[in-house]
Amino acid sequence: MNIKAQVPNTITLLNLLCGCIAVVFAFERNFEFAFLFVCLGIFLDFFDGFFARLFKVSSPLGLQLDSLADMVTSGVVPGLVMYELMLAGSGWKSPIVPFFGFIITLGSCYRLANFNIDTRQTDSFIGLPTPANALFILSLPLVKASSTSFILDEILTDHGILLGISILSAYLLNAEIPLFSLKVKNFNVKDNAIQIVFLVISLLLLIFLQYLGLPLIILTYVLMSVINNKFFKK
Prior knowledge:
This protein is mainly α.
């Protein structure tokens, strides 16, 4: 048995485990712990492919495992969180309304399936990656809970706005928008310059704005990708 070949798959399965735990916390409306385990799962997702390339053990099985794990951590969990937000929201009186939150899960599933067959996304992404989208959605209840703004609280409880966010989320996941990859393929600073700059900006946003910095990080990611495509990408 090739132990090295099992290292990336083990990391991927740990990502899946984090997603399963996050589901439990999301059902309990413990959004902070749900966010924590999604972050841990995403962290593991960054490195399963890296170790597969490092050990030269990349395989079709690993590719499928990666998407299946991401489907739970970055697909099911954000859909469930949006469901819970809409369940506690206000506006439309229909009991069907909260289930529209799972539009995010459907969009994530379609993106992950398409990613596996899209040969254009080897070194970068087309459309918002599911981990980035998951962080954006899971940041919403944290922003709501920590905010003292009445207007912001009203925005994040309105059914119409939450539905609009869900639809926009599913669209961005599958839109033809080139975005740089967040995965570190090697330890060369030059090859990962944009990732390093993005990391520094993200840390500053978190330090000064805390939870409110989370959705701004995703916006920064999209804007940096557009600027990179227009002025720096060859």
